[in-house]
Write a structure and sequence with these properties.
about 100 residues; about 60% helix
Length: about 100
């Protein structure tokens, strides 16, 4: 049986926010109220732990909406970690969108 990664409250909040449909950095910042100095390092850690994956938007989309955006999505491993974190942090689990 695989053990889920133990998330901090902040990481669980960011992961749940992504799962709820807020998929790029600034959008996650606005949804959580956390500063960029918290969000972006956490996103890098979550990606390194393989709890999220990212992809840059296409060049055509970038031209129409401004600078390119990096979009994040929760991986299957991230969903497992998030389920475990929901038991530790019930308010995060209630944020399901």
């Amino acid at each position: 049986m695989e053990t889920a990664v133990k998330l901090s409250h902040t990481s669980a909040l960011i992961l749940q926010t992504i799962r709820s449909g807020y998929m790029y950095g600034f959008d996650i910042m606005e949804a959580t109220g956390l500063p960029s100095g918290t969000i972006y390092p956490a996103l890098r850690r979550l990606e390194k732990a393989r709890l999220i994956r990212s992809d840059w938007d296409s060049a055509a989309a970038a031209e129409s909406q401004g600078p390119p955006r990096k979009y994040f999505r929760v991986t299957p491993e991230g969903r497992i970690a998030l389920a475990a974190a929901g038991k530790r942090f019930p308010p995060v689990a209630q944020l399901k969108g």
